[in-house]
Amino acid sequence: MKRKILAIVGSNNKNSITNFLTRETLKRIETLDESYETKVIFLRDYKVDYCVGCSTCFDKGFCPIDKCDDFTKIRRALLESHIVFFASPVYFHNISGVMKTFADRIFSSSHLMNYAGRLGFTMITAMDSGQELVREYMKKMQSNIGIKNLDSFVFTKKKDTIEEFIETSAVRFLNSIGNNYGYTNRVLEDYFGYYQNYHNILIDKHIAVGQLEHEWSYWNQAWIKECKSFQEFAAKNRRMQGVKSNGGINL
Q: pTM of the entire structure?
């Protein structure tokens, strides 16, 4: 059973260094370790419409825009993956516009952590500044939706060489996986503890349960309430989503 790596790339330029480095780094990983199978979603090739802030995802558990564009395909690919890369160039000290649209559309998952049980990496390309802000932002994106971030690969055009970056990133990836244990860390455990107490939080904030009905129902499921840690939640979440064997990923 191969381990599935999914990369989501936020560059609208088909000839961008971000696209090239992501694609070639994944190819190098497959060459170094044949147990990996990779897939790249270039967001520019998909119809991804803007979030309109209707809050249906929070209240009812679905996004009505999914019926009009390709985002269901992206959600499905995320659910089928074992390892997730988020890649973006730095635009004005932030992620690219198309990557921000992706983040907005996936945002309801930050209240559900429903991609728990996956390991994450980020890749950032920059001319010579802004990379630290984008790295922290994308790491937080992954943590918020339940993905354990293991490393961030940053290419700075003014000082890095392409060949060395690809080789170093691939080796670092394999080392990070080899040294990893479990799906959790302190940040994820803190988030999980917060949401397990969601009912009382809503009451304390004088928010009617009906306003966030889906979220309240989600966190009050018996199997979640029985979990003593995010690690336990992540393992159960994978099984309930039908994610097949991780093919030997260190747990």
A: 0.90
- Of the pLDDT bands very low, low, confident and very high (cuts 50, 70, 90), residue 246 is low
| Distance, CA of 81 to CA of 8 (rounded, Å) | 12
What is the residue type of 178? G
pLDDT tens-digit series, residues 28-69? 999 999 999 999 999 999 999 999 998 888 888 889 999 999
The dihedral built from the CA positions of residue 138, 241, 237 and 215, taken in this order, carries a sign that is: positive
Beta bridge partners of 155: 125
d(CA 185, CA 80): 22
As a whole-number percent, the residues of the chain with pLDDT over 90 amount to 67
- What gap in Å lies between CA 160 and CA 38, rounded to an integer? 25
The residues with which 87 forms a beta bridge, in sequence order, are 9, 123
DSSP H helix total and E strand total for the chain: 11, 5
- State how far the Cα of 151 lies from the Cα of 32, in Å rounded to an integer: 18
